[in-house]
């Protein structure tokens, strides 16, 4: 059963109705509902095509084919029509519950939206349960927030990040399940030289050179073993 959701153009302010769900009127009357909505090109195309199919339907198979076409048209038209309104600059302008349901059915819900799995009421604030039916909210299409922080600047980073997006430092050693052997070179079965240089205690630079015995900061010449 088709449902109606109000939409408004983001620049002109023109208000139109969007639709979602199966269009029984399109199933029974072909392109006429599209013509009534002002969707002239689609309405005329479907009307002409339906008339031709009906005119040349001379046996049972062709009649079944005709009704199959009308069924597909009824199933896809409302979604197609509303998506074209969205691309033309229209936005949903109805109650939160109706907008959330329309987005879910039309497949246009954004990844940041949390929607009640039972009544499709949108989440507000930090609520964990639906204000309409009490059901616990689910997060659709969004990754869980990482609690991992950069060891240098304490900025939040993703669990699999190898470099901090905030300060640029190498943080691969703190990845969960990280193998220490990937950060070292092995000589005669002994851990010898760390690949990751230290941070200069004098100037804070990570630009070091290594002579086999000690690290030397290339900025201020501070040395460390």
Describe the protein.
The chain is α+β, with helices and mostly antiparallel strands and 225 residues long. The protein has three domains: 3-96, no CATH class; 110-142, no CATH class; 191-224, no CATH class. Helix content is 30%, strand content 17%. It is built from five helices and ten strands; from the N terminus they run ββααααβαβββββββ. The strands form four sheets. Strands 2-1-3 form a three-stranded antiparallel beta sheet. Strands 8-9-10 form a three-stranded antiparallel beta sheet, with no helix packed on it. The termini are far apart.
Shape: elongated
- From N to C, what is the helix and strand string? EEHHHHEHEEEEEEE
Number of helices: 5
Query: Low-confidence spans: pLDDT under 50, at least 5 residues?
Result: 138-145, 178-195
Number of domains: 3
Overall residue-averaged pLDDT value: 74
DSSP summary, beta strand count:
10
Q: Radius of gyration in whole Å, from Cα?
A: 31 Å
Structural class: alpha+beta
How much of the residues is beta strand, in percent? Answer: 15-25%
Distance between the termini: 75 Å
The assembly state of the depicted protein chains is: single chain
């Amino acid at each position: 059963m088709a449902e109606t959701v109000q939409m408004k153009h983001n620049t002109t302010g023109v208000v139109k109705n969007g639709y979602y769900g199966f269009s029984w009127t399109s199933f029974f009357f072909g392109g006429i509902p599209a013509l009534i909505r002002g969707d002239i090109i689609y309405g005329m195309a479907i009307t002409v095509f339906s008339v031709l199919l009906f005119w040349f339907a001379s046996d049972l198979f062709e009649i079944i084919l005709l009704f199959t076409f009308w069924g597909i048209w009824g199933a896809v038209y409302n979604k197609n029509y509303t998506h074209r309104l969205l691309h033309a600059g229209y936005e949903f302008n109805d109650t939160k519950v109706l907008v959330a349901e329309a987005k879910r059915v039309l497949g246009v819900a954004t990844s940041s939206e949390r929607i009640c799995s039972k009544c499709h009421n949108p989440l507000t604030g930090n609520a964990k349960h639906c204000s309409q039916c009490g059901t616990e909210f689910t997060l659709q299409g969004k990754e869980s927030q990482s609690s991992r922080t950069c060891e240098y600047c304490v900025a939040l980073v993703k669990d699999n990040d190898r470099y901090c997006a905030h300060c640029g430092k190498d943080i691969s050693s703190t990845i969960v399940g990280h193998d220490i052997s990937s950060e070292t070179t092995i000589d005669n079965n002994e851990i010898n030289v760390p690949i990751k240089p230290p941070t200069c205690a004098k100037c804070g630079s990570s630009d070091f050179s290594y002579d086999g015995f000690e690290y030397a900061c290339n900025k201020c010449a501070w040395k460390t073993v």
